[in-house]
Amino acid sequence: MSAPHRTALRFVPVVAAVALLASGCATPVGGAATPAPTETSVSPETTPTATPKPLETEAPAEEIALPASCDELFTGDLRAMLDAEIAPLNDPGVTMYSTENAEALTLLEAGVPSLRCTWGTPSDRGIATTVALVSDEQAQQVTDALTTAGFGSESADGGEYYRTSQQMLSMDDTVVELGETHFLRGNAWVATRWINYGPESYTPGVVGALWP
């Protein structure tokens, strides 16, 4: 919020002058003529300069509340894309974890406040995302675990992204693409695992919904 605008007042100095007495004034009887007073002036007072107040800016709200439902995470163009390409949302048959990193998964399973959302049907194509509220210490544990596991990192959207992906052959020699994307900011951790469907706009879209 910007600071209210202040207008500095400027005082215009007024110079007062004493008029000269006429040189032809009467002289008292028996006395010398009274000398005419010299002109005097009043010096203007110095007006203090107003010091501008720095503009106040609102700090970004880093901490968030856990969304009430998955519908709050997927909105606008992202929701339309997912509905068209990998519906449904939250099929009860999808049991995929939001990460396969052992240390990160242990933290998710430890009972931190969280919301889990999935896309797709029980198959070889889908997404699982968990938004969890974590302490600074827990966030550092996640960071250390992902860094040790070789995840690439990137600072963006006010936080830190961690990504990994790979290709492997299934039992029928079909190429399977899979990966994970994690995002940490403030008191939140967004963990996502995907199989054969991982659009780049997915996690940034979720982040935009959490920190509008």
Topology, element by element:
Blueprint: H1 76-86, H2 102-108, E1 114-119, E2 126-133, H3 136-148, E3 152-156, E4 159-169, E5 175-185, E6 188-195, H4 202-210
Antiparallel strand pairs: 1-2, 2-6, 3-4, 4-5, 5-6
CATH fold naming of the domain at 70-210: Protein Transport Mog1p, Chain A
User: Percent of residues in helical segments?
Assistant: 10-25%
> What value does the Rg take, in angstroms?
37 Å
Describe the oligomeric state of these chains in a short phrase.
single chain
Mean of pLDDT: 81
Strand order of the largest sheet: 1-2-6-5-4-3
Helix and strand string, N-terminal first? HHEEHEEEEH
Main CATH class of the domain at 70-210: Alpha Beta
Proportion of residues in β-strands = 15-25%
Shape summary = globular
| CATH architecture term of the domain at 70-210 | 3-Layer(aba) Sandwich
Main pleated sheet: 6 strands, antiparallel
Instruction: Label the structural class.
Output: alpha+beta
Instruction: Count every helix, treating DSSP H or I runs of 4 or more residues as helices.
Output: 4
Q: Note poorly predicted spans.
A: 1-48, 50-59
Distance from N terminus to C terminus (CA atoms, Å) equals: 17 Å
